[in-house]
User: What shape does this take?
Amino acid sequence: MDEVTRGKLEAIRQGELSVVENVQRMLERIAKLNPKINAFIELNPDALAQAEAVERRLRRGEKVGKLAGLTVGVKSNINVLGLRATCASKTLEDYIATYDAEVIKRVRAAGGIIIGMTNMDEFACGSSGETSAFGATDNPAAPGHIPGGSSSGSAAAIAAGMCDLCLGSDTGGSIRNPASHCGVVGVKPTYGLVPRQGLIDLAMSLDQIGPFAPDVYGAALLLEVIAGFNPNECVMLDAKGVSYADELQTDLKGMRVGISPKFRELTDPKIMEVIDSAIKKLQDLGAEIVEVELPHLEKGLPAYYLIMSVEFFSATRKFDGRKYGKRIEDVCGDEVLRRILRGRHISRKEYRGKYYQRALQVRTIIREELMTALEKVDVIVGPTVPKLPHKMGEKISVSAMYAYDYLTIPANLAGICGGVVKAGEVDGIPVGLQVQGKVLGEEEVFRVLRSYEAVA
Ligand code: GLN
Assistant: This one.
């Protein structure tokens, strides 16, 4: 799998594969597989026309962008002009986006073809892909198991080869979790590296848009297209564009790679076996393995669920039925309602200083812990999700669902970056290696992901 994206781009550039053919083949594959997998909930009726336009530019020798001719699936919480941005909720089932999100403008300018909107947990609230108002998504890499969430359709679409690249969003793990369960590459960028304009908020202090791809090169390429300052946003980093894809290296000499005993405490031993052998390979590639302390890591989970719920409650007040037709509380699913009620409850005036503020204090502790650890090492590696994905339809408790997020939430609380590559399998189910990096440490993260991919 490790050169799929580069190979496809080459074939398109050389004229061995036309852009129109590429889109047609993907649409055929979607028609065949989607009824079972349910990764896409809407297709772009203009995809072929857009493919023709890119094809014409290519054949005339005009300048085309880095994604020229590649098909891109988009999570349904990102606005794409003329397509539905439903957040997989009945609340927004009739909402057709009136503009392109900033990341979509950048994808189009780079020659990417938006092929359709992908399924997700309702309003990105979930870790299994089962809470969508449009039905659950199957895991193409482990059929009958959940694909993870909340960017369930994006990860499944890549795993099933229904499109070349996908966009997802990650607030507490929603890119990394399904990437791990579906055996694909997914990256949550540093907070503030990628514009959020046009992303429908789950929790705005945590949300980031990021790439999914079948290989590290594809994820690096899509990230370099969408990353970088947007003057219309106030909480962005003034980060320069980096050519992540050109910089990919496959050795780890001189790199300091952190591991934490905390990961083993929280994770299924079968998953840890796979991760341990991946770490051994990183060592063989020249990395120096260094133990780091993350003593409060697990406290991130309750802190996240408080902070996210307060921010989500506030973000959903605009869905009061006046502008978008339906009042969210009247039509949403149980999990979304639970978060709205929790957020409303804990942000009441009489609870001032009790929940939200304490959660913010924990957030500071976690951030400092990770920052201190990342002064000693270049990256921290470990598992992505502490448990294997459950079977579709199996009932699990709310707390078991939240517990899937133990290992991914800390990066969001700290605002650092993290990426996932397939480490191996347990009983035929993919398991992802998570590589967390510093603020704007994407290059180091990609270096480890790519090096591992090359020997895996
Ligand atoms: N699983 C987490 C939640 O349910 C993370 C979701 C996300 O990153 N969007 O909130």
Observations:
- The mean pLDDT is 97.
